[in-house]
């Protein structure tokens, strides 16, 4: 992906009294009408407070869930307004739909949440008429929602065709971290790709092989690669129909001078439950009634040594079934090594994807990585080397 060729809030000029249409990510986890994790609200702070302090009038555009083009109150953004006001420590208003008279009446520095953009059927189809109509309410457009940037919707891309468009501070930070990790990284680069299935990350694996010096494969997907190399993985999660694909990836890695690291010891159990009897064995010693649920300590030690030789790390996916003890050990140990190397200043570490953030939080090291992206789909598409429509629209 190219460098930061987009405009930022530094390029907007005088915005006193101007109306900014600001796309943010308010798609927070909620339970019983309460926000259970306000990470995404926190990330809105820099852009929104800066624009308000510079005298703009801000309409926050965002989606919540998948209401499928109609006003389904189960997906209303109204319950997010008070928690957002608390996080920002500012007054925050709410509008069902943008209304010209109400917008005219807003004092400078106002912040207003507009109801779920996906209540309008034109949002997800990027309907040009809707983009034009919404754009008419604003003087400029800011996109601060990297996590929605893999969608070509009105509020993530279409508006940029009608208004001067800028990356918000969170977007800017995210794009610059991602660029340092894979766009223009310092070599050697290592990628950790873990998680359940090869099939969900085929394009990620293919792209990593071309980009990185060390590809560390863990999690359930390592079983498919082990099986492709003739290892009997017992009753492990394994996509046997993808062994040819796994071999193609291994060959491509060979050609591209990318060293692929598969575990040589693993932690196995006969049942997938918390704290069952386990064995730590060489991959060739897994019996027919056992499943691989984590990579072993010898593998982790070897991988730690690999990370010590690297300058850059990009991580997606856990090394084992980390939600179930004791199969969190490898993920926790390698994440702690990466965090320590980052703190020492020898490694730039970028991680992302839903489960990965949960795994790093579980390891207690999310704050010690150089950058942790909370974007799920957008982060993966970026690792796949795809141009994200929401980022392209800012160029
Ligand atoms: P993903 O969403 O593809 O990143 O996959 C994450 C999921 O993979 C987590 O829920 C892990 O529990 C699961 N996982 C990781 N390693 C294994 C394994 N060896 N066997 C089964 N599931 C695993």
Tell me what you see in this structure:
With 395 residues, the chain is α/β, with parallel strands linked by helices. It has two domains: 3-170, 3-Layer(aba) Sandwich (Rossmann fold); 185-383, Phosphoglycerate kinase, N-terminal domain (Rossmann fold). 35% of the residues lie in helices and 17% in strands. It is built from 15 helices and 17 strands. It has helices at residues 39-42, 45-53, 78-88, 100-104, 122-125, 128-135, 169-183, 202-211, 220-228, 243-255, 297-308, 329-344, 354-363, 377-383, 389-392; strands at 19-23, 30-31, 34-35, 57-61, 93-95, 111-114, 140-143, 165-167, 189-193, 214-217, 259-261, 265-269, 278-282, 291-295, 312-316, 348-352, 371-373. The strands form four sheets. Strands 5-6-4-1-7-8 form a six-stranded parallel β-sheet. Strands 11-10-9-15-16-17 form a six-stranded parallel β-sheet, sandwiched between helices. Helix 11 (297-308) runs parallel beside helix 12. The longest helix has 16 residues, at 329-344. The chain is elongated and about 75 Å long. The chain starts with 18 loop residues before the first strand and ends with a helix. It binds adenosine monophosphate.
């Amino acid at each position: 992906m190219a460098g930061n060729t987009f405009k930022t809030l530094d390029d907007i000029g005088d915005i006193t009294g101007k109306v900014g249409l600001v796309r943010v990510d308010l798609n927070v986890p909620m339970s019983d009408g309460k926000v259970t994790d306000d990470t995404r609200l926190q990330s809105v702070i820099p852009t929104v407070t800066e624009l308000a302090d510079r005298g703009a009038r801000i309409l926050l555009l965002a989606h919540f869930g998948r209401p499928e083009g109609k006003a389904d109150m189960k997906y209303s953004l109204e319950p997010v307004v008070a928690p957002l006001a608390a996080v920002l420590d500012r007054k925050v208003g709410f509008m069902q739909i943008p209304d010209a008279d109400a917008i005219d009446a807003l004092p400078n520095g106002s912040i207003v949440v507009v109801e779920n953009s996906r209540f309008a059927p034109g949002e997800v189809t990027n309907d040009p008429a809707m983009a034009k109509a919404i754009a008419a309410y604003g003087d400029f457009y800011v996109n601060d929602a990297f996590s929605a940037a893999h969608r070509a919707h009105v509020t993530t891309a279409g508006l940029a065709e009608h208004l001067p468009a800028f990356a918000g501070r969170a977007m800017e930070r995210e794009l610059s971290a991602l660029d340092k990790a894979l766009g223009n990284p310092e070599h050697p680069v290592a990628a950790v790709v873990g998680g359940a299935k090869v099939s969900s990350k085929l394009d990620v694996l293919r792209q990593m092989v071309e980009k990185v010096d060390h590809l560390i494969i863990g999690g359930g997907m390592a079983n498919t690669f082990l099986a492709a190399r003739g290892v009997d993985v017992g009753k492990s999660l394994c996509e046997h129909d993808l062994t040819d694909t796994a071999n193609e990836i291994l060959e491509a890695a060979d050609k591209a001078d990318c060293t692929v690291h598969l575990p040589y010891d693993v932690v196995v159990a006969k049942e997938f439950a918390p704290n069952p009897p386990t064995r730590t064995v060489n991959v060739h010693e897994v019996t027919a009634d056992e499943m691989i649920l984590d990579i072993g300590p010898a593998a982790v030690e070897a991988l730690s040594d690999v990370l010590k030789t690297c300058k850059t790390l990009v991580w997606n996916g856990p090394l084992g079934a980390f939600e179930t003890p004791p199969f969190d050990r490898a993920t926790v140990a390698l994440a702690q090594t990466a965090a320590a190397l980052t703190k020492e200043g020898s490694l730039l570490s970028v991680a992302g994807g839903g489960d990965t953030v949960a795994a790093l939080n579980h390891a207690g090291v999310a704050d010690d990585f150089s950058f942790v992206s909370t974007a799920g789909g957008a982060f993966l598409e970026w690792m796949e080397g795809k141009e994200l429509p929401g980022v392209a629209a800012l160029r």
